[in-house]
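Homework help board

Subject: predicted structure for assignment chain

Our instructor gave us this sequence and asked us to write out the predicted structure in token form, then describe one feature. I got the tokens but I'm not sure how to describe them. Can anyone check?
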Amino acid sequence: MRLHIAVYAFDGVTMFHLSIPQAVFGSVARLGLADWEVGLFTTRPAPGRESPGSGIDSPASIRTAEGYLLDGLSGPGLAETADGVVVPAGGAGPDQGRAQQDDGEQGAGARGPHREPPTRRL
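My token output:
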């Protein structure tokens, strides 16, 4: 059974904090120890869009703390269908970073009651 893990990407997050979940979960999958798939999602809309969309295939972008533009990220729909959601701690100032993390957690918690098991914070 494949385990889908969504990593929340937001403006001001550090590349380090985005890379660690992908390195850890991706290594486990590459070593054949578990069938895990890792993806990035955001709640920020792509340029020229009103919202990031709700689907997995709704590309959006963010700018990291280092100034890199990450494009083609999934929308909150990825978190809604994931088995686990990772919300990185690193990023912009404490107030802005916490607000961004809250957005990611809300995207993850938007699942309906029919989905089991519930999203676990990893």
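Reply (TA_rk): Your tokens look well-formed. For the description, you could write something like this. The chain has a mean pLDDT of 76. That's the kind of observation they're looking for.
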